Amino acid sequence: MSAPAVHESVLDAIGGTPLIRLARLGAGLAAPVYAKAEFLSIGGSVKDRAALSMVLAAERDGLLAPGGTIVEATSGNTGIGLAIVGRRRGYRVIAAVADRTAPEKWDILRAYGAEVVLAPTAVPLEDPAHLFNVVRRIVEETPGAWLADQYDNQANPDAHVRTTGPEIWEQTGGRVTHFVAGVGTGGTITGTGGHLKAVSGGAVTVVGADPESSVYGGGDGSPYYVESIGHFIHPDTVEDRWPLAYRRDAADAFERIPDRESLLTARRLAREEGILAGPSSGTAVAAALRVARRLGPEDLVVVLLPDSGRSYLSKVHSDAWMRQWGFLEDGGAVETGGAVENAVPAEPTGLRPLLDSAGPLVTVDADATVGEAARTLHGVPGGVAPAVLARTARPYGVSAAEVVGAVSREVLAAALADGSAKPDAPLGALLGPALPAVGVGQSVAEARAALGSGHPGVLVLVDGRAAGVLPRPALAD
Length: 477
Ligand code: PMP
Fold this sequence. Notes:
Elements: E1 19-21, E2 33-37, H1 47-60, E3 69-74, H2 77-88, E4 92-98, H3 103-111, E5 115-119, H4 131-141, E6 145-147, H5 155-171, E7 178-182, H6 187-199, E8 205-211, E9 253-257, H7 259-273, H8 279-293, E10 301-305, H9 319-324, E11 334-336, E12 339-341, H10 352-356, E13 364-365, H11 370-377, E14 384-388, E15 403-408, H12 409-417, E16 437-439, H13 444-451, E17 457-462, E18 465-471
Parallel strand pairs: 2-10, 3-4, 3-6, 4-5, 7-8, 7-10, 8-9, 13-14, 16-17
Antiparallel strand pairs: 1-2, 11-12, 14-15, 17-18
Helix pairs in contact: 1-2, 1-5, 5-6, 7-8, 11-12
The structure holds 4'-deoxy-4'-aminopyridoxal-5'-phosphate.
């Protein structure tokens, strides 16, 4: 084995990541599955490559000059890459980050000397508070500012044509037959996949790993729980736009992975393979395992793991977080015959028994009239229901993020009785705050604590989606 490289600058330590065989998760499969370990890049993610490429291109094209400021909208990792490259080359770096990204990434950005601006996630593209509009304003107001614009910047996929693709081809001695990666900006899959197809004469199959409800793989764009990949569409967005860094024919096929499978696979990667990676790595590995199951010994699958799990110790790698959103029903993962999985315990625990006897979930459209809501609530145990945006399609269930309030039969009856609301009036003013949400694996005591003194019930989440309501009497001692 040759000695590891010696670098004269941190910028030379970007990329050049190893392939690691997933021998345990891939046990029993004929085709070997190798992980491209991007968390070993100097900034901890695949986005170091795009960041370096975009900065060098901007300098070359005269868009970024000494004294300049780099601005970017980022789920964190591109900002970290830009902070490393940008600060090293003497620029100011401003990273605008969606408030639902893991807070660990904000701290890492600040540690590298970037200025962090938080923007709300759940707003339509047209809203001035949307991340993309926030960065445009910062650029307008900051002399010498340059927007890296990873979504539309060709230097992003180009980084992967020049580095990631050739590395994988060389590391596998040209034996790679399938490349699997998630799609955020699309830079990775377009550049790496495109290169592998080109050098193999079209023999490499490229597979996109997508959250089930993301539109890239054919979902409706409703919310999902894996950050940094997929494409979400806010129901109020008028005109959706896909990144130019993503070539629509980059993937030959998609594997659409439910959140639970992504998150539990990320946890298995840590526990069984010793690879602490982020949730999008879970999606990619889940997809790669599905692909590999259909292949033979002559095939070789490479799956790209975009970043480290150290940025998500408060999310996917936290048992408390997993339980809070209904992704874990026991105390954590349990050992079952060598495989670690989230087994549903023989004796139902947490809120599962109460949920099972609570009856099916009833929701009310927030755009409904008072009369419609009253009819919907007729006969519903406890007489309380979450209110959801009527414009939201729901083939994947109602995500916690789609719940905009709650409505109770008592409030409607009182307003109709005293004449303060007519049956054909919009529900609007009678809508109460959203019910506190608890995961199905949380305890009855935790549900009672969430209920507090004012709420008429709690919303129970299974896999991050509304599964039922436990009205206050159901939680009584
Ligand atoms: N996973 C993580 C953790 C990321 O930060 C990104 C970049 N947003 C991706 C996946 C997707 O990579 P790309 O933007 O190249 O499609």
